[in-house]
User: Fold this.
Amino acid sequence: MSETPYPLHTALSLAASGVPVLPLRRGKVPFGNCSACVDNACGGRPNMKTPGPCRCPGVCHAWAAAITESAIIVSPSWAAAWRRAVCVGYHPGGAGLTVVDLDDAGAIAWARQILPATRTVPTTRGEHWIYRGVMASRNKVRPGVDVKSSMSYARYLGPGTGRMVDLPDTVRAVAAKTRSPARPVPHAGVPAGSGGGQCPHRTPAFLERGIAMAVQRITAARSAIHATVYGTFLAVLSTHGRCGCLTDTHVARLFTAAQSKGETARHCTDAWNNARTTLGL
Assistant:
């Protein structure tokens, strides 16, 4: 019986340990959309385990296609991709991890001064520092430094060395500094979803109308569901994210609308948190 070839063997080993994997082609990039899913016309695939609006069995949705199910990994629909694959990618956020990608000696020197030591994996030009914990991914948080976690993928380069520690707030803070600032409002309030009260710069009717329009925008979407949900969350938070008027009930209405289009609770949470991070909330 012949051995399972690399990178499929590596992928199966990672998947068995709970790390969602996907094949990467030349250039260390994911395989593109198939003809039925081009430009996410299918609505996309929101979660690597639970199919959403897209039922495509192939490897055509980048990080969202990463899975741990060995039966699918070795299935005919993935076979052609593995034959062309040059390496294995994985979804750090899906494994509860964050990868700080350090591209050069300067970035490594910065990390050694600022960040707590953790599991380290050598790369072609630098190192991956891997932490326990999930956050929004962000490229170029500083020269030579990318952060890969939720809604992103990283190249698997080996188990690394050192003891893995929890994601430090320092990484979140550095990533947040690169986000565009939110539109200023007259009053700052509690974070969205954690408190109630009237909006200090608009009427309650304005908030209700805004939530209703947001729900309608999501439910009316026929394609690009992921982008529509994220864009809608971003619009709501840009108006009301700082004033404290959003309640859990408002957020639940938005999440329910998104889930009615096939999004998972986990994807809704990721999209909401990513929108808050983008706005610096």
Summary: The first helix runs from residue 8 to 16. The chain has a mean pLDDT of 82. The CA atoms of residues 23 and 81 lie 7 Å apart. The chain has nine helices and nine strands.
